[in-house]
Amino acid sequence: MSWKRISKRYYYPLLSLALVCFLLLTSIGVGEAQKNVSTTQPTNLNSTQTDSTTYIAQSNNEALSAPDVTSIRSISPKELYVSVPQSLVPENITSYAQERLNLVVTGDNFPQPDNSLKNKIAVKIGNPPDVATTSNIRVAEDGKAIFATFSNDQLRKLSRGTHPVSVEVGGNATSIDPQITEEQLQVKVMRPVSGLTTLIVFAIAAVVTLILVGIIYALATESKKTNLASNSLKKSNQKNLNSLEWLLLDRQTNTFSLARTQFVWWLTIIVFGYLFLFIGRGVIQGIWEFIPLSGFAYTFLISLITLVTAQATSTLRGSKGSGDVNPTWSDLVVHGGVVALERVQQVVWNLIIGIAFIVILLVTYTTASSLPSIPSEILVLMGISAGGYIGGKAVRKAGPNISQVVLWGEPEDYNSDPQLTLSGEHFSQAGGVIVQMVFLDENKNEKPETRIEVKQDNVCTLEPDPDNPGEFCKKLQISFNGLNALPEDQWLVWLHDFADNFTATRVKITLINADGQRAVWDGTNPVPERRKAPPLQSPY
Fold first, then answer.
1. Are 85 and 194 in contact (CB under 8 A)?
2. What's residue 427's pLDDT?
3. Alpha-carbon distance 342 to 377, whole Å?
4. CB 458 within 8 A of CB 479
5. Spatial CB neighbours of 303, under 8 Å, sequence gap ≥ 6
6. H helices of 440-504, where?
7. How far is 335 from 356, CA to CA, in rounded Å?
8. pLDDT tens digit string along 441-462?
9. Can you give the C-alpha Rg of the chain in angstroms?
10. Residue pair 126/191 in contact by the 8 Å Cβ criterion
């Protein structure tokens, strides 16, 4: 029998068998699919029934397990005061009283403590690694509250500020009531700060401030060197100013400027206060963030506007009188050697407010989140005080400043008519100006017996001020010929001594304007000059 015939003979039986197997496998797959569909996606009727059954089962499970779940709801008190001071250096805890601080935690299902680890309760305050833990627990009979007791030794690890509170039962953290946020389960720890810690923070802030001031000081020193190198009038007997004094110096009058001093005063206070609070808050409270200025921006703005306005007023109205030869701190309250009350009140209020700021900062920095707030009344007062100071500069007349002193002729030659000329600015014209002269010893101390006051007949105006021709002049001439400030038998001797002392820079000349402002010269700056030919006398 050939292969062809065999294939034809069994073709249909084999085809029928394959069809039966295919249908069988298909029915099994459909059955499995329907079973899966019925399990995962039931019909509407069955779905309702299944959901209801599942919900009831879950509710029953929760109801059965609820008594075994411990949760916390609130804590009290919200603040704990620890009598042990917080310090940056280790301290002996035994030197402080061992106080007990109680913390009440409310919740549900707190187990009664026993010797088993399962029911052991621990209350913790803080975040690792600084955590205060206590097992000294008492549980309420209804299991809805626990009373935890902490000692100073346990709480000394905590820094000032807010710390979270957690409860562990059997080594496991308890749950938190869903309606309670973690922020509500926090306690604020209040602790004094040791004096040594305050001193350390103060020292750190002071060092950083001094570094900043040192940079400005170095810049001022370079400016001073540059200025002195080109200043041919510098003499060895002139007062040597440090760089801070040089920074506060008004070059035109050779006096300390109140506006400059006020600006530097507040700049230093604000920089130090900001650094002190920034460092102290970070070290003690663990909060490192920018500190709000709380109105001190206005204080700095007032001092800056005062400085700019004072300079503009001096330019428009003229500078104050130079007063004494060398700058002194009295320049802050005097105007050309005359005490000015508007300057006094400006100095007083700046000192009071500045010192009060430092005191408040030192007392409150442990809890402060910003620089001490300045009341609006204080800001208004500072503005009024600054306005009074600027107003005083505006209404007061300009004061005298001496820029050149020349002795003409030789006093030994009585026929040469020796004369002295004073040059500068804002001199009252002859008739309203007073000139006083006195000799000095080697230590620059006055010799009272040599003092004279030049009378008006010996003073004449040489160069009127073009800006104020009827009031001020730029050059005055003093004639020694016929000088009658001393008796006739003494003035010639005085005149000889004057020439010698003038050359040796041991003569002090005081020029007093009609309004009382004065300028004093003692040969320091400017240096004296000697010229042989007397100037032409042309008073106008």
1. yes
2. 92
3. 19
4. yes
5. 262, 263, 265, 266, 267, 386
6. 488-503
7. 28
8. 888 888 888 888 887 778 888 8
9. 46
10. no
Give the pTM: 0.68
For residues 462, 466, 468, 470, the Cα torsion angle rounded to the nearest 10 degrees is 50
CB 497 within 8 A of CB 491: no
Tell me: cis bond preceding 77? Omega within 30 of 0 counts: yes
pLDDT band at residue 195 under the 50/70/90 scheme: confident
User: With contact defined as beta carbons under 8 Å apart, do 505 and 443 qualify?
Assistant: no
Rounded-to-integer distance, Cα 465 and Cα 463, Å? 7
Which residues, 6 or more positions from 256, have their beta carbon under 8 angstroms from its beta carbon? 245, 248, 249, 250, 327, 328, 329, 331, 332
Q: What is the DSSP string of 230-274?
A: T-TT--TTS----HHHHHHEETTTTEE-HHHHHHHHHHHHHHHHH
- Return the residue matching tokens 């003409």: 408
Residues 6+ apart with CB under 8 A from 145: 104, 105, 106, 107, 110, 139
Q: What pLDDT is stored for residue 536 in this prediction?
A: 52
Say whether the peptide bond before residue 539 is cis (omega within 30 degrees of 0).
no
> Measuring CA to CA, which residue among 339, 353, 382, 343 is closest to residue 258?
343
Distance CA 394, CA 342 (A): 12
How many residues in total does the chain contain? 540
Position 414 pLDDT exceeds 80:
no
| DSSP H stretches of helix in 42-144 | 44-65
pLDDT above 80 for 10: no
Question: What tokens were used for 215?
Answer: 């940079």
| Joined tokens for residue 447 | 């010799």
